[in-house]
């Protein structure tokens, strides 16, 4: 058995010599393609969220937990709000890759110039105006002279609220506007030091939930909500149903008409496509359920955003997750979806190679036999037309040469499937030897 193994071990060597260059070429092309396509996303991404106890902050935590299960670390950075998030995305050195931005914060041309893309609208952010006391207010003109907190400049609320005042022909100076963060502003409202405050947030925010159930705090209704949506296309008309906050206590005690921009997930256009897929899939899980203002699967969506939607996100909203994403782990589905062109190219290259390499391998093995045929032919030529006086000497030399050829041929290792070639060589050596011996006897 050891001799048989020794006799057959060189088939692997011949295969490596034959197929090695082509294999290295294919592997090299795959590495180059992998480097150019870059299918593996970075392991860390920075997300700008919002203020303490805001919906942006709460949803940011959910995104971080969801992507952590795929091995992606999401670093959350607190922010005053939408406008600051937009500013961070526009500044290349801020380090922020993705953020929550309120609709109406920018324009399409400006977003394209800044290299920003939307990953979809996530949820509505109604404008909540909470006031102390029981005085019924149905129009914004009734807020004149009141001290209303609209939040710091980094949020989207100050600009939005000023726009609402403007369409009501109210000067910003006619309302005393404050710039406290949401949490301290709520403390000031409950303490009676301000008259009201304005939020633009999903109802998931803890402060919204608390204020809706706090005695002595009223929510301002927008009976002209539909008219506001016609003046501001990025706004929508939503209804807060009676009893939605607490059915047992019937809070609120009636339906409220509100106006609402939408929260949009915005990223730099150079965000890795695999991360785009992950964030969009996470958005579908986090925001896809029914809420106070929408039915199930109404969000996320490619609508309600003035920022161009990323191509991969648009594909997801149009067709849902791909076949690979449904049945394979994320990293494997992402690899195949990003490398499918290379896989097809390698398959197309492998087809002609599969026809070329086997004959080449056969030739490589047989070439070790063929070289001895060359020497055998040289022996035959050496005994042709030899002068009579030198025949004995030449014949003896060639017999010795045949012995050497046979000795070396016997030690030539080839696969067993080619043993017939080796035995054929030995038969031909013996045939030439007999011919020389016959010539020697006939001198």
TrEMBL record:
InterPro entries: TRAP_TAXI. Pfam families: NMT1_3. The keyword Nucleotidyltransferase does not apply. The chain crosses the membrane at residues 12-37, 339-363. Keywords: Membrane, Transmembrane, Transmembrane helix. It comes from the Bacteria. SUPFAM superfamilies: Periplasmic binding protein-like II (SSF53850). This is C4-dicarboxylate ABC transporter substrate-binding protein. The lineage of its organism: Bacteria, Pseudomonadati, Pseudomonadota, Betaproteobacteria, Burkholderiales.
